[in-house]
């Protein structure tokens, strides 16, 4: 299995050792630099789940990974690596594995690259008539003059995950706030800013498992904002995800399964599965949606490398949905591995 691990200084888990030097990112190191990377707790839980049925070797997704794969010649790789540098970082390990003709779990290099680029994802969704918020991509602040959307708006980095770059300030209500946020994103993350119309309705996250006609939606999770502090915007922002919503807090933000009418549940499932299919996701993905002013589910983001923190006290969406479907953590991981092995006709 391949992974990136969070350095100790960049995680809220105090018991994790520092096992590597900080990579040279294309943007300055900030509070959320390593938010996408996994902790040793997650890596070891994943290893133990696979080790129930297979021998496991850990391979860190660094500059030595290619030679490591070439020497090991594994039967299949369980990939959770977020990569290190650049907009195509999540594609690095899959591209290596394809070059070496080694099977691996999850989506291919192309899908991972597209899904990390929110503007490319939204272009494909829009072409296929899958609802998502109106948007514009800002390469510089001057381009903000083109924006004719109604406030409020959301401003975020175009190619980050795990709520990186999304703070309460990302929710803007007037022109100067918009300009300030576009500057912040471009300067701090060295990439364009994505500006979207705000979707005012309920928010959901959907775990999808499997391939083709066998792909299934696990119990839907709703993100509830009722208990948010008054000074925190109702977004699952960096503050909400990594500061407010910790296992030590009593901050209850997830409801699974969500309380839904049958009609809305079917709308959410159908929209998620259409997006999963159109983006050519494989084996598993987490898909975030929010209702627009007309109550229609809109895609917010597609994450083909979903977070899988093992502690039930952590609000990690995919494991939470799997538990609601009656699966243990180990069963969930093994089902992902089984889906990939079946896809490669290894079983």
Could you describe the 3D structure shown?
By secondary structure, the protein is α+β, with helices and mostly antiparallel strands. The chain has 3 domains: 2-105, Rossmann fold (3-Layer(aba) Sandwich); 132-197, Dna Ligase, domain 1 (2-Layer Sandwich); 203-343, ATP-grasp fold, B domain (D-amino Acid Aminotransferase, Chain A, domain 1). It has 10 helices and 12 strands. It has helices spanning 40-51, 65-72, 92-99, 109-116, 118-127, 175-189, 238-244, 262-278, 317-324, 329-343; strands spanning 2-3, 59-60, 135-138, 153-157, 171-172, 193-197, 203-209, 216-217, 221-223, 254-255, 284-291, 297-303. Strands 7, 8, 9, 10, 11 and 12 form a 6-stranded antiparallel sheet that branches. Strands 3-6-4-5 form a 4-stranded antiparallel sheet, sandwiched between helices. Strands 1-2 form a two-stranded parallel sheet. Helix 1 crosses helix 10. The relative contact order is 0.15. Residues 9-29 have low confidence and may be disordered.
Strand and helix map with partners:
Blueprint: E1 2-3, H1 40-51, E2 59-60, H2 65-72, H3 92-99, H4 109-116, H5 118-127, E3 135-138, E4 153-157, E5 171-172, H6 175-189, E6 193-197, E7 203-209, E8 216-217, E9 221-223, H7 238-244, E10 254-255, H8 262-278, E11 284-291, E12 297-303, H9 317-324, H10 329-343
Parallel strand pairs: 1-2
Antiparallel strand pairs: 3-6, 4-5, 4-6, 7-8, 7-9, 7-11, 9-10, 11-12
